[in-house]
Every structure is written in structure tokens, then in C-alpha cells.
Specification:
Aspartate Aminotransferase, domain 1, 12 helices, alpha/beta, binds pyridoxal-5'-phosphate, 3-stranded antiparallel β-sheet, globular, 7-stranded mixed β-sheet, 14% strand, Aspartate Aminotransferase, domain 2, 377 residues
Length: 377
């Protein structure tokens, strides 16, 4: 009984609906779990190596190393790239804290630059000026599923002898000038946190890249620094991809392209339905980008009131992210004041993430959009 009218009696529209996705896959997921129980292969083994090969093929990268989370993927990739204490990494304050935690935890220092107003990803023009004597690498984030502008970053990196690590944790399947993210920088980090476009039923992550020696280093870090069992080149971590999660991811990966199409269709519906609402700016897709809409983030006047009103109507929303990293208590030590990164700061006060998932219907999008129009009327 679908209804097109917004009102408190209408069914809620969640921000993200994983229950529907999993209902369609339940038989296969349960079978994969049963297989794991019967073989008792919970750590490493054939599911992990098969998923690594399948995900590397999807991304078009030479190889893939499964790890326990996206944060581990970033951390191990940074260590594999040779990050040492005192080394500086350039990234943006407009991201999830995992990006910067990884730099610090791998022993590096942070150098922030602002994002580009249109793409909400790192502004290459500001990166050039930020490169200093201690800079070793650039860490662009393909935020919300929109790729960062990689060519100018790669040019800067090549000229200055830096590496580029892609934070692709929100961007499985996104393309930059026709090439998949995760196959372009020196290494790339993916997260399979349940809410990501490709999500496990728990925590999981992966590093992709084309240089085998770097991927081998990631494989050592995920397993206590050992190449051969009980022979440790360095200290490492317990950071492996769980075999049951790998089996679940193998069931979902063949559906990812269709799910991305579903998200892009929903994004088109939103764009049409919100056209002409002066108080709302819908997300841009650069002409060189294939956006995968992990999040559909509008910028809106009177954002907090709008969010509260949508909440009253049973429409789930989110804020990604409400407080820029340089203004977080965790980064007080950097001594960066308000005003340091104006685009990030201005955006953080206006951004609002609308419901976005592959199964969203045109009726759902119409209801959300009608509610937004009604709010400004
Ligand atoms: C989710 C995410 C991460 C971290 O992934 P986890 O799997 O949660 O550790 C890193 N960077 C960005 C931009 C993310 O969205």
C-alpha cells in the first residue's frame, strides 16, 4: 500500500535499509556460514584468497590483501609505504576520523588542506602549496563515493617523490576518468563495514594496489609481521580478514554493480525532485567522475530544523560530518583554530545526508523531497 503523501501516518523511511538487502540473500548467507562451521576454516584459507582475487579483478588492481577493517587497511598501507615518525601526510579535515587516526597510529604527522567546494574532496591546488620538507605522501579521500581529482595529485606526487594512498572506504566501484578508484594510487584502502556500499556482516577491509611488494608488506602487518609462520621481520598486528566475512562478501560482490545503479537512480530522482529549491544544494558529479553515492549529501539552509522536521515525519537522516577534524578535541594539539579551512567549516554547518540505498523507491524519494519542499514553503 504505497502512499505518495508525506504525513506522520506514512511508513518510516530509514536512512539505510540493510534488512531488505539481507532478506534477499539470507539463504546464501546462511549456507556460507554453515560451510564455515563444517570446515572450521575461520582464519585465512580459501574464502579469503578467493575474495581477494575477485575484489582485485573488480577494482582492476593487480592485487588485494584482505584485512580486518578499513582503518587497518589504511594503517597497514601507510606502514607498507614506509611511513616513519616525523613524516608528514597531507589529507583533509573533511573526512571520518579513521583517515587521520591511521596516519597518527602508523607514526606519521598530519598536514591538513581544505576541500574543493564542488566535489567535497581534497583541493589539489592547495596540496601543492602544503608540500614541505617532511611530506612523504598524499592521502585523498573519495568522500561520499565521489572520487578525488587524482591526476593533479599524482602529478604533484611524481614531481616531489611522494606516494598517493587512496582512502576508498566510501567509494567501491567509483570511477575517475573511466578508471576504478583503488587501481590508480600507489595503494588504496577499502572498508567493508556493514553500512558501506559493499558491507560485510561485521567489520572487514582490504588494501588494493599494483605493486606486489607493497601488498606483501600489508600481508605481513596483518599477521604479526611474519612472512613465514613464527618468523617475524617486524612487529605487526592481528588484522586479518575473517574467513566468514570473506564468504559473505563473495556473495555480495557480484551484486555491487546493480546496487550502485540503484543508488545512482535514486540520486537522479532526488536531483529532479529537488530542482528549483533555492535553499538546497544537491551534490555535484564532476564530468570526470562516476559517483557511487555511498551518501547523498545535500547542503541546506536551517539544516538542524530541517533535520528535526524530517525526523518527525519518520525520515532518517545523518550528518557526515558535523564537526571538522581540526576542531575536534582529539586534535587540539594541532593548534588549528576556527577559520583555518573555510570550505570544510561552512559545509559542516549545512550538510545533511538523505536516505540512500539501492532499494529506495521513487515514491520514497518523492516523499523525502516533498517534505523538504514543504519545510521551506
Ligand atoms: C568507514 C571509513 C573508514 C574506516 O573504515 P572501518 O572499516 O570502519 O575501519 C576510513 N575512512 C573513511 C572515509 C570511512 O568512511
Amino acid at each position: 500500500m504505497a502512499t505518495m503523501t508525506a504525513g506522520p501516518s506514512a511508513a518510516p523511511i530509514p536512512f539505510l535499509d540493510l534488512v531488505t538487502q539481507h532478506a534477499a540473500l539470507e539463504v546464501e548467507l546462511v549456507e556460507a556460514f554453515r560451510r564455515a562451521l563444517r570446515t572450521a576454516r575461520f582464519v585465512n584459507g580459501p574464502e579469503v584468497t578467493a575474495f581477494e582475487a575477485e575484489f582485485a579483478a573488480f577494482v582492476g588492481a593487480g592485487g588485494c590483501a584482505g584485512v580486518a577493517s578499513g582503518t587497518d587497511a589504511l594503517r597497514f598501507a601507510l606502514s607498507a609505504l614506509g611511513l616513519r615518525p616525523g613524516d608528514e601526510v597531507i589529507t583533509t579535515p573533511h573526512t571520518f576520523i579513521a583517515t587521520t587516526e591511521a596516519v597518527t597510529q602508523a607514526g606519521g604527522s598530519l598536514r591538513f588542506v581544505d576541500v574543493d567546494e564542488r566535489t567535497m574532496t581534497i583541493d589539489p591546488r592547495q596540496v601543492e602549496a602544503a608540500v614541505g620538507p617532511r611530506t612523504v605522501g598524499i592521502l585523498p579521500v573519495h568522500l561520499y563515493g565521489h572520487p578525488a581529482d587524482l591526476d593533479p595529485l599524482l602529478a604533484i606526487a611524481r614531481a616531489r617523490g611522494l606516494w598517493v594512498l587512496e582512502d576508498a572506504c566510501q567509494a567501491h566501484g567509483a570511477k575517475y576518468r573511466g578508471r576504478m578508484v583503488g587501481s590508480i594510487g600507489d595503494l588504496a584502502a577499502f572498508s567493508f563495514y556493514p553500512g558501506k556500499n559493499l558491507g560485510a556482516c561485521g567489520d572487514a577491509g582490504a588494501v588494493t594496489g599494483t605493486r606486489p611488494e607493497l601488498l606483501d608488506a600489508v600481508r605481513r602487518y596483518r599477521e604479526h609481521g611474519q612472512g613465514e609462520k613464527y618468523y617475524h621481520d617486524t612487529e605487526g598486528y592481528t588484522g586479518r580478514l575473517d574467513a566468514i566475512q570473506a564468504a559473505f562478501l563473495r556473495i555480495k560482490l557480484p551484486r555491487l554493480t546493480a546496487w550502485i545503479e540503484g543508488r545512482r537512480r535514486a540520486a537522479d530522482w532526488y536531483r529532479q525532485a529537488l530542482r528549483g529549491v533555492a535553499e538546497v544544494q544537491v551534490p555535484d558529479e564532476a564530468d570526470w567522475a562516476h559517483h557511487v553515492y555511498h551518501l547523498f549529501v545535500i547542503r541546506a539552509d536551517r539544516r538542524d530544523q530541517l533535520q528535526a522536521q524530517l525526523g518527525k515525519l519518520g525520515i532518517g537522516t545523518g550528518l557526515h560530518y558535523p564537526l571538522p577534524l581540526h576542531l575536534q578535541k582529539a586534535y587540539e594539539r594541532l593548534g588549528l583554530r576556527k577559520g583555518s579551512f573555510p570550505v570544510t567549516e561552512r559545509t559542516s554547518e549545512r550538510l545533511l545526508s538523505l536516505p540512500m540505498f539501492a532499494e529506495l523507491t521513487e515514491g520514497d524519494v518523492a516523499r523525502v523531497s516533498d517534505a523538504i519542499r514543504a519545510f521551506y514553503r
